[in-house]
Amino acid sequence: MSSYQYRHYPYRRPTELDGKGKRRPVVIVGAGLAGPTLALALAVRGVASVLLDEDDTVSNGSRSICQAKHSLETWDRFGIAQRMVDKGITWEQGEVYLHDKPIYHFNLAPEPGHKFPAFVNLQQYYVEEYLFDRCLAEKLIDLRFRHKVVGVRPDSGGVSLDVETPDGRYTLDADWLVACDGVRSAVRHLLDLPFPGEVFHDQFLIADIRFTSELPKERRFWFYPSFHPTNSVLLHRQADNVLRVDFQLGRDADPEEEKKPENVDRRLRQMFGPDATWEHEWSSVYTFTCRMMERFVQGRVIFAGDAAHVVSPFGARGGNAAVADVDNLAWKLVRVLAGTSPASLLESYCSERRAAAHENTLNSTRSTDFITPKFPASRAFRDATLALAREFPFARSLVNSGRLSVPTVQPGSSIDTPDGDTDWLRGPTPGMAMVDAPVANGRGGFLVDHVGPDFTLIAFAARPVDLPELPAGMAGVMVAREGAPPSGWTALLDRDGLVRQRYDGRAGTAYLIRPDRYVAARWRRPDARELAAALRRATGHG
Amino acid sequence: MADAATGALRRTLNLRRPDEVYNAIIDAHRDLNDDQCRAFDAGLILLLANHVGDADVIGEALAAARLSLNGGSRAG
Question: Do B47 and A381 touch (CB under 8 A)?
Answer without folding.
Answer: no
